[in-house]
Design a protein that fits this description.
The chain is mainly alpha-helical. It has one domain (about 25-80): F1F0 ATP synthase subunit C (F1FO ATP Synthase). Helices cover about 90% and strands about 0% of the residues. It has three helices and no strands. The chain has helices at about 1-10, 15-50, 55-80. The radius of gyration is 20 Å and the shape is elongated. The two termini are about 25 Å apart.
Length: about 80
């Protein structure tokens, strides 16, 4: 039992490492929020200029948002595992 406790204590991240992981996760989420916000804003402008192309613009914007969310999720997982 004592050997297992020693192994777990060595495997636990340090306080500094845990803090940096939280900062990394925050940056990933912040970047995703900014990216998706820009996509939404530009999508609204594009649809206002060409309403007949609204369906195509909306589809492209949703696909781009999914890619950004996937990258943000990947960054979040990596930051929290580190």
């Amino acid at each position: 039992m004592l050997n297992m406790l020693a192994v777990l204590q060595q495997a636990a991240p340090t306080t500094i490492g845990a803090g940096l992981a939280v900062v990394g996760a925050g940056i990933a989420v912040l970047g995703a929020g900014l990216g998706i916000g820009r996509i939404g804003g530009h999508m609204a402008e594009a649809i206002a200029r060409q309403p007949e192309a609204g369906a195509n613009i909306q589809t492209a914007a949703i696909i781009l948002s999914v890619f950004i969310e996937g990258a943000a999720l990947f960054g979040l997982v990596i930051a929290l595992l580190a």
